[in-house]
Amino acid sequence: MDKLIIQGGTKLSGEVLVSGSKNAALPILISTVLAPGKNEISNVPFLRDINTTIKVLESLGARVEGNGHVVKVDTAGINSHEATYDLVKTMRASVLVLGPLLARFGKARVSLPGGCAIGARPINLHLKGLQALGAEIILEHGYVAAKARQLKGSRINFDVSTVGGTEHLMMAAATAKGESLLENAAREPEIIDLARILNRMGARIEGAGTDTIRIQGVAELAPVSYEVMPDRIEAGTFMIAAAITGGDIRIKGMKLEHLDALVFKLQDAGVEISSRDNVVRVKGPRKIRSVNIKTRPYPGFPTDMQAQFMALMCKADGASVISENIFENRFMHVAELLRFGADIVIEGNVATVKGVKKLSGAPVMATDLRASASLILAGLTSDNTTEVSRIYHLDRGYESIEKKLAGLGANIVRVQE
């Protein structure tokens, strides 16, 4: 098992390129099930979750070839409608194959999902939506079994905004008979990216990026070539890395408009942010100002940036209040940040962070994907050595982050424990 060793105190500088979006690439790869034939997906990041998705597709009978960041998926030969527990248990997004398999073959059997332990993320809204489209759903022995002769368009109103649920029902409805309406749909940029590839395949989807998505079902979809959007969470993590170290970096390949909520809060904290010729420059302040945040569904402040922003507030001048409104267990990184000497008090879903003059490096343990990033950020600004263990979480969502940070001047290495 690997760990990261970080010698803190270096101001980051230089240029870094953002990888393709994990959260967009996963459903995009799965969507190829709906388009029998040779699909080519580019700007795919090298990540554990991507490898898991490829294994799921191969287990179904797809032929997958990778060359650099280009993945070719031939789904013409899919001959199975079952995704087993051994594959699905490590990644929640695997459950998204249920809808496409059901739409294409009229039946599917998929294990209930796993993933990061950051709180309950039930798939009841996914299943309720599939039932509205005419599917018969049975839960048995840890699996979801679904069947339907022909999915039929329906009006689906989500009780709460759900990214995975919106993606799932959008794929399932693409070839359903008639029109479907998804209300209170998630609005994330990754939803728009999925709609784009589906429309390029021949789907008729309108309204992606708003809370109402209209889908006119078509008889079939055709394979395509498509480039995945950049990873906004990785980009945001680098922005905070510059801010927390007092650095000055340039970030290539990101879309600044995907991070408006984070940008506003970073500017409130004194961070200088500018954009020119598709390159974003981020300059950390001499003194970080305290800022309050509340996580919300997009376009609100992203829950996937909460842990990283908390690390920044540990060095702020004054106290900040961080409210986590998406996942109930997403403060697990707090116990590890306290080991750096941070001053954080939790009451329910609210954390009060009092900035300290310095953080001291410590041996810490990652508890989930974004918590891993917060510990690295704290280590970058600490006054001595930090060791971050259990970084297999990190490898699920950040492509070679230690190499990219080292390229910006950070003293960080990966070693085997």
UniProtKB/TrEMBL annotation:
Gene3D superfamilies: Enolpyruvate transferase domain. GO terms for cellular component: cytoplasm. Pathway: Cell wall biogenesis; peptidoglycan biosynthesis. The lineage of its organism: Bacteria, Pseudomonadati, Thermodesulfobacteriota, Desulfuromonadia, Desulfuromonadales. The keyword Cytoplasm applies. It catalyses: phosphoenolpyruvate + UDP-N-acetyl-alpha-D-glucosamine = UDP-N-acetyl-3-O-(1-carboxyvinyl)-alpha-D-glucosamine + phosphate. Pfam families: EPSP_synthase. The gene is murA. It is found in: Cytoplasm. This is UDP-N-acetylglucosamine 1-carboxyvinyltransferase. It comes from the Bacteria. Its EC number is 2.5.1.7. Cell wall formation. Adds enolpyruvyl to UDP-N-acetylglucosamine. UDP-N-acetyl-alpha-D-glucosamine binds at residues 92, 304, 326. The active site is at 116 (proton donor). Phosphoenolpyruvate binds at residues 22-23. It comes from Pelobacter propionicus (strain DSM 2379 / NBRC 103807 / OttBd1). GO terms for molecular function: UDP-N-acetylglucosamine 1-carboxyvinyltransferase activity. InterPro entries: Enolpyruvate_Tfrase_dom, Enolpyruvate_Tfrase_sf, MurA_subfamily, RNA3'P_cycl/enolpyr_Trfase_a/b, UDP_GlcNAc_COvinyl_MurA. The modification 2-(S-cysteinyl)pyruvic acid O-phosphothioketal is found at residue 116. Belongs to the EPSP synthase family. MurA subfamily. Keywords: Cell cycle, Cell division, Cell shape, Cell wall biogenesis/degradation, Cytoplasm, Peptidoglycan synthesis, Pyruvate, Transferase. Residues 6-405 form the Enolpyruvate transferase domain. GO terms for biological process: cell division; cell wall organization; peptidoglycan biosynthetic process; regulation of cell shape; UDP-N-acetylgalactosamine biosynthetic process.
